[in-house]
Write a structure and sequence with these properties.
Elements lengths: L6 H26 L5 H18 L16 H22 L4 H8 L2 H13 L5 H18 L11 H16 L9 H23 L7 H27 L2 H4 L6 H13 L5 H27 L1
Length: about 290
Amino acid sequence: MFKRLSATYKALLLSIVGYGGFAISDAAVKLLTPYYSTYQIISCDLILASCILLLFSPKLGGLKTLRDPQNMRFHLLRALGNLLGAITIVYLFSLFPLTSVYTVIFLMPFIMALLAIPIYKERVGPHRWLAMLIGFSGILIAFQPWKSNLDLYLWLPLLAAPLFFGGMHLVMRSIKGASDLAIGLYPTAVAGICALPLVFLNGDFILFTPAHFSCLLVSALGIATGFLCVSKAFHRADASLIAPMQYTQMIWGIVFGILLFGDIPKPEMLLGATIIIASGIYLIRKERVSASVI
């Protein structure tokens, strides 16, 4: 049945499965946060996911493609963004429901558009500026700082997470001719290895129980599945069609939040998320039109 579908429908299906894999990973990580340190979860999760990616290396270009000197500085920059982003997002998972964290992460397209102005000298028209303004207003509606008791220091990781991940994705524009394996493995493996010393420096390493290790394995499989499916989806269809599929994670976030954590999203959070998602889709579409004109 899958073979009978057009390339576009295959890409959409792959992207939905891929982003679902990322959501499963997020839920599994959140389950572990009460028991283990942020650094331990990150290092073990990313190293395990890297091992799974290596098992699929023949389908991702082969180990020989990891030798990529012309793009190495960009791979390392992405690894840095992934490490910092993972630290902030796992910390946020320990404090907030999945839907709240996703609402913040969905600011990525707006942050990428802003970063592209000084880095790539990109011009932003009035329609895209308006989309970004409306998108950022969505975060205020979602968290309502004028009513909530949210500490000011928590706004730092809330805004840092989409900044780090947005920067990581933006660097992809500078990578030319790299294999899927190199693009996925370097930020995953390097970030995981760099986080490992932090675990022992803090002296808070705890052996995983069998049940918790199973949870960690599910998370790593989710990361690997997400990467494999999403990367294939972007190869089969236009990026402007696949990128909005990231927002399907909100559906998973609501389902997992209710079933696993008893978290029912507040109406203002859903309203803010809807504004961010709608503005993000508009921005992505506008960027596609701008790119075609150029």
